[in-house]
Amino acid sequence: MGAGALAAGGAALWWDGARISDDLHARFAAGDLTAADGPRYGRARRESIAGRAMVAGAAVLGAVAVALWW
Questions:
Q1: CA–CA gap between residue 32 and residue 41 (Å, rounded)
Q2: For the chain, which residues make up each domain, given as ranges?
Q3: Are 33 and 27 in contact (CB under 8 A)?
């Protein structure tokens, strides 16, 4: 159950980071970025990295649980 919750939380962070990044890329292509958008790049990157790490951790926890179950 813990691995599933970790995976769900990680997937949500990963998705939100990708959503922010896609929005910023679209605004860049349209020439609509401002200096205030700078921190959003950092947020998108941090969320994406944290989400991936959480999903990877969930996969490891799941594998350990299966190994201990056998």
A1: 14
A2: 2-69
A3: yes
